[in-house]
Design goal:
about 50% helix; Rossmann fold; 2 domains; seven-stranded parallel beta sheet; alpha/beta
Length: about 260
């Protein structure tokens, strides 16, 4: 367990990619701070299960990623208990799809707040303790949309491009402090959220669910296969290890070849 004695805070980690990353880090010995929305009983079951399975301390913060004061309080609470947030994974994100002229301004503001500004606020709060320890790992969950655009996703694409710039800038500022800063850029990942969308999409388009997967969702991915949560989590875990200490400021696609086109 190479991360024993380290603490990882993963935003947006009550399900999907965030929970997968938190699980991989816990399995390697890290204490975990979960964050996200959902049913309180389900979140507690997730927290307790993760702690029991891996023998690590797991806490939960309900901090709202649109509120800088909540974010600062979450980091302060983690530091009070663990001394520092050694590994910060900025994973919280939401999506809205519409042409720009129909895109609600409040959705633009919300997506930018959660998908981009929250990462600034977490890094701003967590970095001093990382610098004091002389070690840290910051991993930003970006997207293939940090590298390439798609129509009707103006806020999401803008935010993810912003995450790429944030990642590179903080990597340069921390390069001599034992801290690495990288962005993981998944393509379409098989998550419960994606799975739930398939029947409705099939019905709306009058095609089979398999056709939705192959011809709609995976149209951009040359492998015609979903990226798995476990694959994304394994990349995050690798970036936390000593073998990755020279990797910083990297924007790393894990997208079945999408951005190679």
């Amino acid at each position: 367990m190479t991360l024993k004695g380290k603490t990882a805070l993963v935003t947006g980690s009550t399900s999907g990619i965030g929970l997968g990353i938190a699980t991989a880090l816990a399995a390697d010995g890290a204490s975990i701070v979960l964050n996200g929305f959902g049913d309180a009983a389900a979140i507690e079951a997730t927290r307790a299960g993760l702690a029991a399975r891996h023998g690590v301390t797991v806490r939960y913060s309900p901090a709202d990623m649109t509120k800088p004061s909540d974010i600062a309080a979450m980091i302060a609470e983690a530091e009070a208990e663990f001394g520092a947030v050694d590994i910060l994974v900025n994973n919280a994100g939401i999506q809205h799809v519409a042409p720009i002229e129909d895109f609600p301004t409040e959705k633009w503001d919300q997506i930018l707040a959660i998908n981009l500004s929250s990462a600034f606020h977490t890094i701003h709060a967590a970095l001093p303790a990382m610098k004091k320890k002389g070690w840290g790992r910051i991993i930003n969950t970006a997207s293939a949309h940090a590298l390439i655009a798609s129509p009707y996703k103006v806020a999401y694409v803008a935010a993810k491009h912003g995450i790429a710039g944030l990642t590179k800038t903080v990597a340069l500022e921390t390069a001599t402090h034992g801290i690495t800063v990288n962005a993981i850029c998944p393509g379409y990942v098989w998550t419960p959220l994606v799975e739930k969308q398939i029947p409705d999409t099939a019905k709306a388009r009058g095609i089979s669910e398999e056709a939705v997967k192959r011809d709609v969702i995976l149209a951009a991915q040359p492998t015609k296969e979903f990226v798995t949560v476990e694959e994304v989590a394994a990349l995050a875990l690798f970036l936390c290890g000593d073998a990755a200490k020279a990797i910083t400021g990297a924007i790393l696609p894990i997208d079945g070849g999408w951005t190679a086109a």
